[in-house]
Amino acid sequence: MRTDPAAELFARLAEPFTGEALFDRLDGVVYFVKNERAEYVLVNRTLVERCGASDKSELIGRTAEDLFPAPLGRTYREQDEALIRSGEAISGQLELHLYPGGRTGWCLTNKLPLRDRGGQVVGLVGSSQDLRPPAEAEDGYDDVARAVQFARDRLEERPSVEAMAEVAGLSAYQLDRRIRRLFGLTPGQLLLKLRIDAAAEQLRHTDRPAAQVALSCGYSDQSAFSRQFRRTIGLTPLEYREAYRPGG
């Protein structure tokens, strides 16, 4: 009977392989493992730094709600608990993370359920990859810059990828490849990022009602905007305005 090479190798290891040492050496990647109570049991150095802590032990046994400001921490914990209940993975979810000191950063988050031998979910493993900014040294991407500016100037009209490609003088496939290379995102994810960025800017620096902000960013109704904003940032538009408006 043929043996499983991976199982055979892991059975010989002195300690269980968790990937912790590997992820400690990767810049711009948050890595964590949580138990069935959504408590951290393993983290990498990047997550420790993002939480403003000095040692991993300060995170172990705590939930996201313990570590991140309200109501953001509660939203993260609820997301973890929903995954543990359903067993449904989160794949390539674009999120705007808020860090200590008010700094923000876009990332792509993945979370997978961990199951015991009986198939029950007993925890989760996850990572968040920082999105790299477009490389300033990249040449020959003026066409993409035109497409992005076109979309940014017309968010209220819900610009399509096809319209962006036409402005760039590229096929939709060519634009997709170039945007992925420059931003690490699909065109659809980039459009979402532009809309959420624009909405967050208005919420921080204007008194416009959320309904007007929604319309200006291409959302046909406020409820759809609020759901997308909360899914992406972890806060409702009004919670975000209250928490991150200068002088608020």
TrEMBL record:
Signal peptide: none
UniProt cross-references to SMART domains, sorted A to Z: HTH_ARAC
Domain of life assignment: Bacteria
Keyword vocabulary terms for this entry: DNA-binding, Transcription, Transcription regulation
Any Pfam family: PAS_4
HTH araC/xylS-type domain location: 145-243
A molecular function (GO) term: DNA-binding transcription factor activity
Classification via PANTHER family: HTH-TYPE TRANSCRIPTIONAL ACTIVATOR RHAS (PTHR46796:SF13), HTH-TYPE TRANSCRIPTIONAL ACTIVATOR RHAS-RELATED (PTHR46796)
Name under which the protein is recorded: Regulatory protein SoxS
Originating species: Aquisphaera giovannonii
Gene: soxS_1
